[in-house]
Design a protein that fits this description.
Layout (H helix, E strand, L loop, with lengths): L7 H7 L6 H9 L3 E3 L2 E2 L11 E5 L4 E6 L9 H4 L3 E3 L3 H12 L15 H11 L6
Antiparallel strand pairs: 1-2, 1-3, 3-4, 4-5
Helix pairs in contact: 1-2
């Protein structure tokens, strides 16, 4: 691409670290994205070889930029534009956190009864009239 300037928020969105560009910009503004230990603004230009430390809801990342990706690509393509250099202890913490992560969905077969179960319950709960 002729335009070699690429904003940090757009880059992090295009390599699929963040789901939306707005989330990427918000993370930059709140100090969750750092370059050489210093927080970066969303409009900062990305350069090859930059190393970013990123804190997302799910995990901590440390990545090195190996290519500039201007548009969002499939995950298999996106991973070619950075190298994950997250330290070993952070990766272990990420795995522990992922295993206890709550999606907010109710486990299946628990909670409200199905229509069939409701009918069975109604039949079970009916009391025979006494004579």
């Amino acid at each position: 691409m002729s335009n070699e300037k690429l904003r940090v928020d757009k880059y992090l969105w295009s390599i699929r670290i963040f789901k939306t560009r707005t989330m990427a910009a918000a993370a930059c503004d709140s100090g969750k994205v750092r370059l050489n230990g210093a927080p970066v603004k969303a409009a900062k230009t990305v350069s090859l070889g930059d190393q970013y430390e990123i804190r997302t809801e799910a995990r901590k990342w440390k990545i090195e930029v190996t290519g500039l990706l201007h548009t969002r690509q499939a995950y298999a393509e996106a991973i070619k534009y950075y190298v994950d250099i997250t330290p070993e202890e952070d990766q272990l913490a990420n795995q522990r956190m992922a295993s206890s992560f709550n999606t907010g969905k109710r486990p299946s077969k628990i909670g409200r009864p199905t229509k069939k179960e409701r009918r069975d319950l109604d039949g079970f709960m009916e009391v025979e009239p006494e004579e």
